[in-house]
Every structure is written in structure tokens, then in C-alpha cells.
Design brief:
Length: about 350
Amino acid sequence: MKLAHWSLHFYRLPYVREVRWVYAAESSGDYALLTIVADNGTAGVAEGVIKPTRTGASPRSLMAVLETVVLPELQGLNLLDEKAVLGALARIPENRLAKAMVDNACWALRAAAAGKPLWQLLGGKPEIDLAYILTRQSPERMAAEAGDACARHGFRTLKVQGGQGRETDLRTLAEVRAAVGPEVALYVDANGSYPREDAAAYVRALADAGVRVSEDPCALAPDAAFEDLQRASPLPILVDLSCTSAAEAELYFGRGARAVAAKPARIGLSEARAIDAVAARRGGSAALALYYESALGTLLSLQLAGALASRALLPPSQSFFLLLGAQVTKEVPQIRGGKLRLPDEPCLEKLVDWNAVKRLKP
């Protein structure tokens, strides 16, 4: 089953409110949709996010890389052959977004060719527990949003975006806890905002506040400083920003890591599976984590959630699509009791609303 043709589409999705990340405040997000079609007509799709300071790509650069660098390497290959496709992609340095999108589209194509949903092809399950992401706002607004999300969708885990200053983070946690009660689990992602010398005290304060996991409390590297931080920490330190491959996961687990992130939308399903395999072998956890996905990207990334081999630490955090005011899927996934059920449709391309893709073109 060889590559016959492909197409790339761009769309802009508004947020229901301003979203403040560590690097910027945004009112919308830009996305790319890759479609690859095999010579027998079978199609696979993948979504990527366009954020120059996070993914290092613009629409023009992504189109050029796919057209002149990445997809030519797939010519003549059997797209059902995972090893052949990965070998071709491995020959290309850098260009992580383009390679991840191609890898994910090939997985979607394999599911369509097999006539079974991708979660089933990967040996997983369709019903997935999710965590809700609380992005940076005032403590009062974050608490109000937490209470609403838990009441409306039944979430039992919250990913709290920290890094607003230690005292603000702790006040946020106190107000969120008061809003959702003691049964909801909290973990905090500080996005590497604090100095290394302050990280140990910050993590201890999070533990005292009832937090279960601390993600990127400071800039991390697989070195002696990280080893000391995790050894002294009462919490697992979840490594995200500096762990984007199975090789980096090996280095972190060699330094005593207990958990690393695996983001299919950032690195591709294949590399996420490889990270999970490292974590399982090392007795740690690979936490499936969001990468700004819309509903479409969420439905692709979560195909892996029920098939992870490593020890469970946190529910996946792919709930960001709830903050989007428009989608490019025919239906928006529903979350009930904190769970999302993946569709049984083998061909994810059939879930795309192509009229919405055209209407939402930037």
C-alpha cells in the first residue's frame, strides 16, 4: 500500500476565553491537517499545531518540509510497514512536527486498512479517563472553572497550570480544593518556571497542599541535580519539556525518574509508544499528555491511552478541546463521568467536517 497523494490544510480555532500559557496569551490556535491517501484509496489523517515558539513551524515552512523533505522519503514504501516508515523518518534530522504528523497519519491509515478502530489495532480500550486542564488565570477564576468542569463533566483529576509565583500557585490550589472537594486529584505543571535552587522547596509545598504529581517545576535535565531533586521529593516529578524521545526517557530513568510525558501530537504515536516501553521496562510511568489538540487531534492522540504498558500515574490530559469555540469534526466528543469514549469508526478521515475546515481557514 503505497503513497498516492497527500494534502495539507490549515485552520484557526477560536478559544472560548483567553488562554495564558507560560510563553504567551492567546485567543485562538492555528492547526494543520495532513491527509495521506494510499494507491487503493485508503486515507489517514493527522493534526499538528502551528506555534512558532513551541513547534518551530509556520504554515509555509511545514508545507515545504513535507513536500520537499519528509514525504519524498516515503515514496515506494509500504505504508502498512511500521518499521519501513519509521526507518525512513529516522533518516531525517530535526523537523519533529512534520515527522510526527506523517507517523500519526500512517497509523490512522493502518487502522482504516485493517477495518478496525486504531485503539483496537493498538490493543487498547475505547473508554478513557481524562484530566481537566486549568490554564493560568486568577486563583478565583481557576477555582470557579474547576468546580464547573467537575460538576458538568465529572472530572476526578485536574491538571493545574502553575508558574504564577509560589504564593499564587498555593493560593490557587487552596481555592481549587475548596471548590472541588477532597476526592478530586490535583497535579501541577509549572512549565519549568522556577529556578532550580527553588524547586525542592516548591515541590515540598505542593505535597503539603495535597498535590500528587509535580510536572516540570524547573528546567530539567537528566543529570545529578535532577537525581537529587527526585530522590528528595515526596512527589513524582513528571518530566515533560525535556523528554521527547525514548533515548531521552532512558537517560531520565537512569537518573531515578518515576514518570515522563509522552505526547503523540508532539512526537508521533510511534515515539510515544517507544517511551511507554522504556517506562514499562524501568518500572516507571509514561503519562499521555496534551499538545493543544482540537477535538480531531484528541481523538487521534487518545487512541494510545488504553494501550499503555507502563504503570498508570495520571489520566491523560487531552481535555483542551473543551476550551475551543469551534471544531473541524462532525461531532464533538462528549465527556461524562470524567470519561471519553473513542469512536468505533476505523477511518478517522470520515470524522472530519471538511466544510468547517474550509470555513475556518486563516
